[in-house]
Known about the structure:
By secondary structure, the protein is α/β, with parallel strands linked by helices.
Amino acid sequence: MSASFASALNAAREASGAQHYPQGALYVVATPIGNLADITLRALHVLQTVDAIACEDTRHTQSLLRAYGIDRSGSAWLAVHQHNEAQAAQQVVERLQQGQRIAYVSDAGTPGVSDPGARLVAAVRAAGLRSIPLPGASSVTAALSVAGAVAGKTETGGFLFAGFLPTKALERSTAVQHLAQEPRCVAVLEAPHRIRDLAEALGTLGVRQVTLARELTKQFEEIVTLQAQALAGWLAENEQRARGEFVVLLHPLQAAPADDGQGLRVLRLLLGELPVKTAVKLAAEITGGSRNVLYEQALQLKRGDGADGED
């Protein structure tokens, strides 16, 4: 433990020690997603004082806590992961009913969103017990905060969290085409061994802007915004770019400029005779409309006709 974390433990006791921590409650604690400094003072205090800590991987979490100078005994640890979540949740409920305070952490970030923990919290709530959130690091909100992809108070405001898409190619492709119709920003998570497959699937979205955020908060953090059709090529340029956990943000669909619908009418006529890219280019020149918007409209029209939109 470094001297800076020793100071943090002292600050945690001073800032959080006087607060109220109910018995018989589950404390859902966010932990860093890479940078150890991204821990809250309240999290440090709770992890020192609760009766038990439930977590995905006890060895991983023990190592994390030791970095802060927190060393809990073996009896304080409960393994709660995707393979035993239902059974382990009942054990947690029983201990809470005895008046214990239990913290739950995932391997990184905020539990219960894309990591195990949702079933545990549901079981606690079903038993009439309390779950208390300790907010902190989240890869999704970290990426959203710097991507400029969440619109204001408009029809495309807010964002949709889609989590991990299906791993099978056909199901993933279907999911991407479904999300292509979503006008708001869409947040997707992906693992390094599947990011190239996801990039290929997203390539069908053409010029729609996509932000890739990898290794967030770590030394080799990288955040880039590209057209969807350029993602696969960008990853292929450097094998290092496929490493790390990813947050992928589909930017909102661009709204068509307010007009009398001339651009769409011209586009429909041209698509009957010409390839998509040529039709879009001519429609933009004729009407003065946005080429990006017209391209997205062309893809939607092609999908509606049962075509593949690749011509």
